[in-house]
Structures are given as C-alpha cells and as structure tokens.
Amino acid sequence: MNLSVLTPSKKPSELTYDVLIENQEDGKVLATVIGLPDCQAIGATKEEALTSLYERLTERLAKAEIVSIKIEPPKAEHPWMKFAGMFKDDPQFDDMLADIEAYRRELDAEMEEYYRKLDAEDEAK
C-alpha cells in the first residue's frame, strides 16, 4: 500500500465541524460533533451547549495535530486473471481443445438438421 502523510505547511486558520443538536427529555441540549462521537457537551440551552462544545473541542485540538494522508488504493486484479495460462504446460490441452471443437461441430450439425426438419414441415403445410 502506498501511503504518504501530507503535513500542512502552516496551521489552518479555520476548521469547520458539523454539530448534531439534540433536545434531551430533561430539557437540556446535547451537542455532538459529527464524526467525533466522544466530543459532546450538554447545556441548558443550545447556545450554552455549543459554547461548551467549542471550548472542549478547542482544548482537544490544542493537544493534537491534524494531518492529511494520501492513500493510493491497490490495483485490483481481474478475478479471472489468476486462471489465465494455467493449462499452458498441460500436454493434453491441445487434445482437449480439439475435442471441444469437434463437439461444437457435432452440435452445430444437429441444430442444422433440426432447422432443416422445421423448414420441411413448414413447407409441407
């Protein structure tokens, strides 16, 4: 796997997070950063919960570093490629191909005969 860490040349000036606001049964408000379920705050009002969450998130980010990583996904092999050439050294392979070809000719001849009979029946009507 190819993985490269892209460290920012300067600290981002502003980060934006989506926050889920939920009213609790006890009348309080729960604010949760989407994608960070352990980063929550409760307040008596929406503004109080958001202010508390802002402080908690700011404190957390002060002790952390945000980096971006670039991952190149592995190239997937076609599922049938593992079977390609598996009979190349089989001494009976050419004989098998000849048998398949002969059987196909036999089937084609049977179908031709069948269609001839159908055509003859249609002409007789």
From TrEMBL:
Q: Does the keyword Coiled coil apply?
A: yes
Keywords noted in UniProt: Coiled coil
Q: Which residues form a coiled coil?
A: 93-124
Query: Per its record, how is this protein called by name?
Result: Type II toxin-antitoxin system HicB family antitoxin
